[in-house]
Structures are given as structure tokens and as C-alpha cells.
What we know:
Layout: E1 3-9, E2 18-20, E3 24-33, E4 37-58, E5 61-77, E6 87-89, E7 92-101, E8 110-111, E9 115-127, E10 134-144
Amino acid sequence: MGVTCQLLLTKANEGVSYYKAGQSVTGTLKYVFDKPTEFTSATLSLIGSGFCQWQTQLANSILIHVGNEDYVVQHMDLLQAKQGEVVTIQPGSYEHPFNFKLPEEIPSSHKDDVGNITYKVELRFIKSGLVKNSNKFNTIITVYGDVKPNIPQPLMAGLNKEYKFLCRKNFLNLKAQIRKKKQRS
Length: 185
């Protein structure tokens, strides 16, 4: 059987299962081994990345455009092993609490035909030996970015209208104030 794993996330917002930019992603990692197993690393990570792909046609050829971007990559080393050191994990149950902080300026989770932005908590065990086998477990989380206005000051608008009169002055200057309509309760 090898290893079984559970990534238990703490609900972030009054019992709902999404996170906002700047919040902490917390929870408990639980895993069980049924026999002694040697590993070179065991890493719990918070990963947020974007991927897009689309194509355009130019004359007789098709161009494929691909883009990748990382928004957050945070790691937690579970073995605390030195580089190249092999650690044997004995049979039994293990628990590790975790806490990752999402950056303030990240985009929301998204998926469409052109691409996606995904966030996940991922556990990866890498076994020792000539062939580097790995066990990987992950859970996708939904993240909403923080929407901020583009213009920090009030928006000023103006209108310059030219009128022709049979007098010496060619312009009529008008000034107006627009009041915000009060909401009825």
C-alpha cells in the first residue's frame, strides 16, 4: 500500500471554503505509512500558477502562443534532511499543522478555454534510489483576489462646448456640480 494522505484545510471565511488574497491557508496534513520507507525529501507546498494557450493563423501557418506565470510558491520541508541525506520514515500515523500566507496582490482563481489560474496545497514525497519515484497528493483551493479601484481619487469630468454668438465673446463658460443621488432606505 505505501502511503495514504489527507490534506485537511481549515475553512477561512466563516465556514466557506475559499480564500482571499492576503489570508492564511491553514490546516493539518495527515499521512500513514504501512512499512518503513526511505525518502530524500518530503515537501508540503502552496503553489499558485497561471497557464494560457491560444493560436493565431498567419497566411499558411498556425502560431501557438503559450504563457506560464507563478503567483505564489511556498514550501515547508517535513523531513528537515540535509541535501542528499536519506531519511527512513517508520510505519505509523503522522500529523503536521501548516500555515501558508497568500500574497496581497494575486489574481483570483479562474478557468476558461484559453487558460487557468489555479492554487493548490501539494505534498510530494521523493523516494531514494536510482530511479527517483515520487508520491504526490494535492488539493485545489479557490482564491479571490483583492479588487482595488484603478483611480484612487474622485473622478473629475468636464465638457468644453463652443457656441457662436453675434457678439465679441465666442465662448460661454458653464460650471456645474453633479450630486450623488441619495439611496432610499
